[in-house]
Amino acid sequence: MRPPSLDGRVRLRPLQATDAPFILALLTDAEFLRQVGDRGVHDLASARQYIDSGPRTSYARHGFGLEAIEVRDGRCIGICGLLRRDTHPDVELGFALLPGARGQGYAAEAAALTVGRATQELGLRRLVALVAPDNPRSARIVETLGFRFERMAHLSPAGPSQLFVYEVPPR
């Protein structure tokens, strides 16, 4: 795993068991539940299980996963990273922030770091982002990063999502 980035206002680092209280707060936030869905996290034990079976398993299997977004004072304000899902063949960019951190540019900064790592360090040529139709802020973030809307996708029982695609131009 690479060392965390210290550029800008945020850094990304792998999630660990001690992040369970933060993960519990994030994944039980009403907006997260509405936009992303219930991930079965309802207490500290299930938050630790989520970290272990999700992000930490992904790090071992793929070399990437969701990571903690930390601000300079060490507080975790969200998650951002790459996901490999069984529901579609592409690597997906995902991000979510705690309520107090939304609307301040942190998600865009973390997502830009993640896209840079995906294309430069991991050599990925194509990424996707799934955005709920009623989430214009996230759509704006991915469009600013160079993703383009491709189609509506029905990959989740939670309902349709906008599928945005980022492709590295041929050299």
Could you report the average pLDDT, rounded to the nearest whole number?
Answer: 91
* Shape annotation: globular
Radius of gyration, CA atoms, in whole angstroms: 15 Å
Query: What are the secondary-structure elements, in order, as H or E?
Result: EHHHEEEHEHEE
Tally of discrete structural domains:
1
CATH-derived topology: Aminopeptidase
Overview of the molecule:
The chain has 171 residues and is α+β, with helices and mostly antiparallel strands. It has a single domain (10-167), classed as Gcn5-related N-acetyltransferase (GNAT) (Aminopeptidase), CATH 3.40.630. Helices cover 34% and strands 27% of the residues. It has 5 helices and 7 strands, in the order βαααβββαβαββ. Strands 1-2-3-4-5-7-6 form a 7-stranded mixed β-sheet, with helices on both faces. Helix 1 packs across helix 3. The longest helix has 19 residues, at 44-62. It is globular and about 45 Å long. Mean pLDDT is 91; it is low at 1-6.
